[in-house]
Amino acid sequence: MPAVKTKRMPRAVREQQMLDAAVKIFGQRGYMAASMDEIAELAGVSKPLVYLYLNSKEDLFSACIRREAKALIDAVRAGARPDLPADRQLWSGLTAFFTHTARNPDGWSVLHLQARTHGEVFAGEVAAMRAEIVAFVTQLILAAARDAHRDPDLPAAEVAGLAEALVGAAESLADWANATPGVTARQAAATLMNFAWAGLGDLMNGHRWVPPADDEGDQQGSTSPVR
Amino acid sequence: MPAVKTKRMPRAVREQQMLDAAVKIFGQRGYMAASMDEIAELAGVSKPLVYLYLNSKEDLFSACIRREAKALIDAVRAGARPDLPADRQLWSGLTAFFTHTARNPDGWSVLHLQARTHGEVFAGEVAAMRAEIVAFVTQLILAAARDAHRDPDLPAAEVAGLAEALVGAAESLADWANATPGVTARQAAATLMNFAWAGLGDLMNGHRWVPPADDEGDQQGSTSPVR
Amino acid sequence: MPAVKTKRMPRAVREQQMLDAAVKIFGQRGYMAASMDEIAELAGVSKPLVYLYLNSKEDLFSACIRREAKALIDAVRAGARPDLPADRQLWSGLTAFFTHTARNPDGWSVLHLQARTHGEVFAGEVAAMRAEIVAFVTQLILAAARDAHRDPDLPAAEVAGLAEALVGAAESLADWANATPGVTARQAAATLMNFAWAGLGDLMNGHRWVPPADDEGDQQGSTSPVR
Amino acid sequence: MPAVKTKRMPRAVREQQMLDAAVKIFGQRGYMAASMDEIAELAGVSKPLVYLYLNSKEDLFSACIRREAKALIDAVRAGARPDLPADRQLWSGLTAFFTHTARNPDGWSVLHLQARTHGEVFAGEVAAMRAEIVAFVTQLILAAARDAHRDPDLPAAEVAGLAEALVGAAESLADWANATPGVTARQAAATLMNFAWAGLGDLMNGHRWVPPADDEGDQQGSTSPVR
DNA sequence: TATGAATGAGAGTTCATTCAT
DNA sequence: TATGAATGAACTCTCATTCAT
Description:
TetR/AcrR family transcriptional regulator (chains A, B, C, D), DesT_TetR_C (chains A, B, C, D), Homeodomain-like_sf (chains A, B, C, D), DNA-binding (chains A, B, C, D), DNA-binding, transcription (chains A, B, C, D), Tetracycline Repressor, domain 2
């Protein structure tokens, strides 16, 4: 199923066709197993043209990462509604996120799976995008604290860890949702909200789970999670 | 830096050396980018010997997966203490998990990153291990419910999603901890406990975050996470 | 002594060059001992080009067999003259056959020697060609019977055996002629005609050599071949 | 189905086991495709022992050729009965030949198929055996001439060609008989006697098939084969 | 006599990349 | 703008052969 072979298209269009093909192949096969031959064929052009426009396999992969990262960020941004309370913002952001990853499984695979397995260069490009999302979530956590009129004295490092955990959980759930038929974006988002939001709330109220003083042999409990 | 060339070792020993080398190379480069030459050199043996003992690149990779999966499961099992309350069990299991992944970053990479990007066969081997862990966590969640003498009427599907989210979050945090200098296993475990345990407790009390009825246009909040 | 390196030739031409080289190498070394490197070098191209056009060593060998089989059949067909009496037809067919095998020793080696030692697939391709020739000879034997206005009541099975023997003898003589300097195609053909034609004639007259009733102990001769 | 592993056997016995295995493998796979591993396993010994006794793959193959050549010659010799008339001698020799090749298909394959496709060294070893047989047949032809009390003035070269043709036909028929279920050694021998003996007789009476003076365009017949 | 451990050398095959038009 | 023709380099895998015991 190569693209219809239309000759003499403007460069920008051809490039998008190539990127479409590349994202699909890279997403399904991985960087190393993807072959430029297959990508060119799927794009409906000759291999030299791919090189003329995208320069090399590495550059092509980079371009895929950048395009898909931007698309994902844009989707999440479009889902966010700064006027809503923090929990609603998180909810809509998550929903947008899961919707996008469900609609673009290959792009998501490129970002989350493939880019991280090959060289620091690619990983760096993804890390930049991820940092943006973590920052967004961090902001929400702090906003939630403000909404609650509490200054729960959360140290920055702790907030960072929480944001990281939330984003990490979201990423894992995206893979899970894509791999599990019948799980919708809303369900994935709801699962995560249920899982995380109360915990965050507790934290802000100063209820935290305190690790036992000593790993071995100590018996002392902690704030019981079940009230 | 090839291993010291000790000659004429019994087969079982050589095999472990080869697996050590293979896990390292596979973990760092990925399945496709790893070359049998490099693995053999790192193991301090000739390539034919690798083939004689491990048969093929695929089989070698499989053997790595199986060995590392077993090691991980064993580590978590050794960390679990069935006599403790559920939260303490989760805590010690998580600590063991993060400790193991921190000490075996290459093995963890093989399991979590590399094995999932190449062929259903490999993914299946990992999935089996993951299923064991998810089952363990699921058990803990149910035990927590029992501990609290509540029958919170959590539907099985919801418990599955929660366990999935928890395991997913743990996996992501393991990557994060490995990539972020200065984060200890205990810190990672504490972050996740804080993040998750209170939420689970709330859920069992029937406090759940209810998504807005309609994505577009509805303004009304929900159970506020921040009290 | 690689072929003169002429660059940028149309595919069809290059393919023939490759087949030329392959037939030579396969014919001289055999299928297994022939190396794609050597073939590519003799063809004056790089190995990848051989693979691009001919796909694999097996396919290349198959292509050689098909090309050489066709050439041989065509040569024999071109030599046949359906208007002549049967003996003359056989003579001209044999002459064409020995001429062709003498001019294409490598092709003949591929067909007769090499193709039969590797896998049923290859043997099958040659068998098809051989069957055509045997059919042609069978026809001639029957035509000779008709020419003689005899119905010698030759059973089909016997005719088949005779045709087989004649073709087998021709094949062996082709090898012998190629290996023995100074033996021309005409000489080989004459030898075979002398050897076979009178015997056939006798057979059609009902003079056949009758084997002794019992292998051991019987003394009695048979129709003496020498009158 | 490796040979039963009996330890510490006298060298001569072990060598025969190895040759048995080697002939089987060489005969079925060909020289190049046969692997020393497979031969050693089939022989029920370790590879170094094969090298200790037989020295190298080449030497092993040579030994196979020599053993099988001797066996074949011996079989034919044992079948010959110098006291009989020439035709009966030929008959019994042929029968012995076809019987032996039918009982030792792998050995026959080594001699007739495999040895001729690899290097002049091996071909030479077979040629020596073949020469013996051709000499035997030549003798018979001359004896037949004597029996007939004729000195048909057959030039030596012609006799050589005839013997060659007869032996070649026999070789081809051996392959054919081995490949065609239901064809017995006696049938093969009878076919060849019928095919050849009358022709020889005619020749000795001076009836020979005379080739047309000119290949192209000449119409002139020849001694009609059908009287 | 006999073998487990080990390897140098080379096979077929594929791929990212470029040249010439 | 676009492509058929072509290749250097690297990969997985196999094999005949030897060493040390």
